[in-house]
């Protein structure tokens, strides 16, 4: 129970990596509040909060668009109102947008991707830090942030200019918040997944949509949501107390190549 009695928010926790993080944190004893646009699970299955409750854990779901300040503030307020404090904020929600290059990307798509992937993380960090500053230090921390970045914030995301730029902002935000609030005992890190298999299984005839990712990944398999969840757990736990401002790659070696 590495998160016994901790209170954690996971944005985008309905599906994929966020779902794996929410489930692992709950198994480790955290009370988990999931904020997402929908409870529907992209890869299929019962809603995350329901699955956690079925496993004997504690979880709540709340509709939240991370691009909207009022939603994010209300998410944090709801977690604190029910569980008394906030220990861990995982800013995981993101969108690929249209997934286009410089010349094809419309102004609307750029604004939408930035609103979710960059502003959404900013709003999540801001609401969490405001709450953390009202709390006493426990286990050498007032609170911990884990932002989900990407290898595509450090190297080009072919054909996904808005997504990659938004993810680069997440890495920068993580460092700045870590430095600015170190004195407050607030710990802020990121996890940078490589290619993780989420969403509906790909397949069928035609070219392999995962070919580029397989070619870029030295390890002989692509990532699983639990690979990322375990790294997030480490950064959210007391084991990582002197680690801050770090962007931990969970990418099968993608960025070492
Ligand atoms: N899967 C990968 O290969 C990969 C690689 C690198 C980084 N990442 C990052 O990991 C994180 C999770 O990715 P995933 O593959 O699990 O994605 P996913 O699409 O499977 O799940 C994303 C979740 O976020 C939610 N969401 C989207 N926009 C939202 C908004 N505005 N407000 C609240 N919730 C919103 C969705 O409803 C969904 O439940 C993202 O930050 C993504 O950029 C994923």
Automatic annotation (TrEMBL):
CDD domains: SDR_c
Highest taxon above the source species: Bacteria
Oxidoreductase as UniProt keyword: yes
Record keywords, A-Z: Oxidoreductase
Protein name in the entry: SDR family oxidoreductase
Lineage: Bacteria, Pseudomonadati, Pseudomonadota, Alphaproteobacteria, Acetobacterales
NCBIfam families: PRK07231.1
Record's keyword annotation contains Oxidoreductase: yes
PROSITE patterns xrefs: ADH_SHORT
A Pfam family matched in the record: adh_short_C2
